[in-house]
Amino acid sequence: QVQLVQSGAEVKKPGASVKVSCKASGYTFSTYSIHWVRQAPGQGFEWMGVINPSGDTTSYAQNLQGRVTMTRDTSSSTVYMELSSLTSEDTAVYFCAREAARGLYYSDYWGQGTLVTVSS
Amino acid sequence: DIVMTQSPDSLAASLGERATINCKSSQNVLSPSNNKNYLVWYQQKPGQPPRLLIYWASTRESGVPDRFSGSGSGTDFTLTISSLQAEDVAVYYCQQYYISPSTFGQGTKVEIK
User: Fold this and answer.
1) Is B52 on the interface with A (CB under 8 A)?
2) pLDDT digits over A56-98, tens only?
3) Which residues pair with B103 in a beta bridge?
């Protein structure tokens, strides 16, 4: 069965960076794009960006441009999301999610989420 | 960006009753090229990731009970739970995927009365 397993919770200080991993299994990794979406405490969802199956194309939310980097390692079926220059407003649960069909920005499988807390 | 607005913010209904959630987009999400509405519905329970319920506004995802149905077109959409069950207690979100960035509604919390 399709599974996306994310790395554990992180606590970071303002100005630091965080890198979250998302390991995929149960499907052909090189076939599907992966999206990242975050959810601030008690809030709705914010789409952060997407990385294509081969990892050579990314698209990021405009408000995160310059701070977010998405990469993927085909050998380990893992996708990474790194966010830099963290502030308290980046405190959220971060989800990776598989794109349901090529070019369609909705997801059929989601990781369990990774809580990132930014606090001094 | 397209703004998605859900109503109500929360609702409480009795077991077996119908529950209806509305979602309005600030722009049309119906594609004239394929006549499809780029709108999905998710269910999220506490401490869990979202679960895909409906895509193309009205197509039920595999394994989703048929008491869940989606309707609407253009800018106005509805998720209906025909007979509310205890396991349906959750927050429901709509999302448009017609224009990037994809955007979500603020969520509707469904409870049992």
Assistant:
1) yes
2) 899 999 999 999 999 999 999 999 999 999 999 999 999 999 9
3) B96
